[in-house]
Specification:
Elements lengths: L1 H10 L14 H10 L2 H17 L3 H13 L3 H14 L4 H7 L9 H14 L10 H16 L3 H8 L9 H13 L3 H19 L8 H8 L1 H14 L3 H14 L8 H10 L3 H13 L6 H12 L5 H21 L2 E5 L4 E4 L4 E3 L7 E7 L4 H16 L6 E7 L7 H12 L5 E3 L11 H5 L6 E5 L4 E7 L5 H16 L5
Parallel strand pairs: 4-5, 5-6
Antiparallel strand pairs: 1-8, 2-3, 2-6, 4-7, 7-8
């Protein structure tokens, strides 16, 4: 959670008030919270506590309380927040505190009532700067009404969203609900709007592109693919092809993200070789679900399936070579920090107790969707090594946002049937005050470390893929490499 706060603070200035000289030090302070020495953190904490005691500016007080939280003084930060609300009953902190219980309400109707009271007390039109906090709530209401089949209300709420760079987060889930209910007509304009918004930011001059522009563009391939799939289902292959080819021209570096949809249009247009080439791209990335379709296209292209096994042997070799080339970029060699954490049963697990084993650490959180999407693959990788006493997988639960995480994490693991050894990353180093994720240098999750039998970090991976087969291959290459003596 601390990491999330400091990352958010570094992302943008407080949108509801002018920058102060204190807030201009946002990035500097975030760096100290993330990787500063104990002395630097203590000095920063002292200065921020002084600000909390003396400042009469709400923005500075919020700024100080957030960083105080990030430094590990959670209770003190909560007390400061309460004092801010008391001092500024119509201010930003009071506004945010008022809506805090929104997500805990059981019914959409109750949530809507709270929202209406909220905007009556703090009207959106009177807010200076961005209105992202309002959009979070509006998008949630829109998604809920869409899921309940209330199209009119869902649309009325998405139309209230303010921030162009973010509103696809409301539009796309609502559109997806409409599609699930068979209402393609209502879904298409929402997806098209999300595409238009993303293209606006993609087409900005380089000097105008900021973090917001980057965020808006991230989902673009997904939006385009979703609309192209609709066109394909409607028999509009030409429209689908035009949409994808335009997108590829706009973001050629992301061309492979369109392959799963693009090949269908190419095949329908009689461009069999190009269709097969798109599937080859996916195969080399570890998406093996189209193997039967590839065999079919291969036979069409070659007049028979003769040679198809050799064809896939060559492709498999390229997949392995690609993985080996990729993991070379992840190589490190340094001692792993000692740790001793508790598992779900309250038992202590230390790195020292695992000496002589290759240890796979997977840092994750229940709110982290990329983490969760990789779990089927990690489960398959763990099962692949179930009989290998020289390998131990540990899933390090970190950066949880919910104070009730110790009940929610086991429930999540049990619900999904994951046979994972989960450790809570909530033990602070007595000297640095840092949790394990910080000591390991984790800057984002999911993050994975491969530690060799002598306790040295050999590989550090960030990001993830949902491709089960690819994860299995990648983990096998990493683990087997870590079993071998380090050659330098």
């Amino acid at each position: 959670m601390k990491k999330l706060i400091t990352a958010a603070l570094a992302f943008a200035a407080s949108a509801t008030m002018a920058q102060s000289s204190l807030q201009e030090k946002r990035a500097e302070y975030a760096k100290i919270v993330e990787s500063g020495s104990k002395a630097e953190k203590d000095t920063l904490a002292k200065g921020l506590f002084d600000v909390a005691k003396t400042s009469k500016d709400e923005g500075d007080l919020i700024f100080a309380s957030n960083f105080i939280y990030g430094l590990g003084y959670e209770d003190a930060a909560d007390s400061i927040r309460k004092e801010i609300v008391r001092k500024f009953p119509k201010g930003v902190a009071a506004r945010d505190a008022y809506i805090q219980g929104f997500y805990d309400l059981e019914s959409t109707k109750e949530q809507e009532k709270l929202f209406k009271r909220w905007v009556k007390k703090w009207p959106m039109e009177k807010v200076e700067g961005d209105k992202l906090n309002y959009d979070y709530v509006i998008a949630s209401l829109a998604r809920s009404f869409a899921a309940e089949g209330d199209e009119a209300k869902a649309l009325s709420y998405v139309e209230q969203m303010n921030e162009r760079f973010w509103r696809a987060q409301g539009y796309i889930p609502v559109a997806t609900s409409f599609l699930q209910q068979g209402d393609t007509l209502a879904a298409i304009p929402l997806i098209q709007t999300a595409i238009n918004d993303a293209e606006y930011y993609i087409n900005l001059p380089k000097e105008q592109k900021d973090n917001k522009a980057g965020f808006a563009a991230v989902g673009y391939p997904g939006y385009v693919s979703q609309l192209a799939e609709i066109y394909d289902a409607q028999g509009k292959q030409t429209e689908a092809m035009q949409l994808i080819e335009r997108a590829i021209a706009l973001v050629p570096e992301q061309a492979s993200r369109f392959s799963g949809t693009y090949f269908k249009g190419l095949e329908a247009a009689g461009r069999k070789l190009e269709a097969l080439q798109q599937l080859e791209i996916l195969y080399k990335q570890g998406t093996f679900t189209y193997k039967d379709k590839m065999k079919e296209l291969y036979a069409v292209m070659n007049g028979s399936d003769q040679g198809v096994e050799a064809y896939f042997t060559r492709l498999d070799g390229e997949v392995i070579k690609g993985i080996r080339d990729h993991i070379k970029e992840m190589e490190v060699y340094k001692p792993a920090p000692a740790f001793e954490l508790l598992n779900l049963e309250g038992e202590s697990v230390s790195l020292a107790s695992l000496k002589g084993k290759v240890v796979v650490l997977d840092f994750w959180a229940t709110w982290c969707q990329p983490c969760i999407r990789s779990f089927p693959g990690m489960k398959a990788a763990q099962e692949m090594y179930a009989a290998d006493d020289e390998v131990q997988f540990l899933f390090i639960n970190t950066w949880e946002r919910d104070k009730e995480y110790k009940s929610k994490v086991p429930a999540f693991i049990e619900k999904n049937g994951y046979p994972f050894e989960v450790l809570y990353d909530d033990q602070k180093d007595p000297e640095t005050g840092a949790i394990l994720a910080t000591e390991m240098g984790v800057r984002g999750i999911p993050a994975k470390f491969i530690i060799d039998k002598e306790g040295n970090i050999r590989y550090f991976l960030t990001g993830s893929t949902p491709n089960v087969d690819y994860i299995k291959l990648e983990m096998k290459e990493l683990i087997e490499a870590a079993k071998m003596p380090y050659k330098g």
